[in-house]
Each structure stands twice: as structure tokens, then as C-alpha cells.
Amino acid sequence: MTKHLFTTTTPSGERRHIDTGYDRMCGHFFLLVSDPAQTDDDRLIYFTSYDPRFLDRSRKGSDFGGATLAELKTCFEEQGITPPEGLFEKLRDDELLQRGNEITHW
Per UniProt, which keywords does this protein have (predicted)? Predict the structure, then answer.
């Protein structure tokens, strides 16, 4: 699994910690968005693994709530997250090269 970590501010001014990447074992991408201002129990804002769109049994990897790269881009837009320049290209390479166990801080 690759992980790409960064902190950003949404258009409405809220800080968000982003954890995204490619899960080589499951063959899909993921996005986890958290609010650093909240307590541990309330930090989670969004996680593809909990998104009903990605839990459809007819989908590849549905047991783990994975997304395609195109779907991941949509999730970023829906969450108001502007990715760092080059992130999606790096994620695409993670999939193509089947990278694992790599963490990148942006």
C-alpha cells in the first residue's frame, strides 16, 4: 500500500488531513479525510471504505470499499480537496508499478 499524506484547507476554510494512496493487495485507491481540530472519535470526515457507492458486491474490491482513479478524483472534488500538483500522476504510477510500503509526505 502506498500512502500520500498532506494537510490542506477547504474552500470554506476548514483544515483537513488527507491520507490517500493505492492498495496493491486489494487493487484499488482509497481516500481518508480527517479533521485535525476534532477529538479522536470525531476526526473522521470521509473514508472511501465506508462510502456505499464503493461497497456494491458487483464491483471489484467491493469488500474493502476501493475506488478507481477516476472515482478518487471525484471524491476529492466532493470533499473540496485540492490535491498537490502531481499527486494523481504519482497515484497512477503507484498502480502501474504495483508499488507498496511507500509513504510520501507532500
Answer: Plasmid
CA atoms within 13 A on the CB side of 81: 28
Per-domain residue ranges for the chain? 2-101
Task: Decide: residue 30, CB within 10 A, 0-12 exposed, 13-18 middle, 19+ buried.
Answer: buried
Pick the closest to residue 44 from 31, 57, 53, 55 (CA basis). Answer: 31
The amino acid occupying position 1 is: M
Residue 65 contacts residue 54 (beta carbons within 8 Å): yes
pLDDT tens for 9-47 read 999 999 999 999 999 988 899 999 999 999 888 999 999
pLDDT digits (tens, 9 = 90+) for 72-104: 999 999 999 999 999 999 999 999 999 999 999
C-alpha to C-alpha distance for 17 and 10, rounded to whole angstroms: 11
Cell numbers for 61, please give them. 474490491
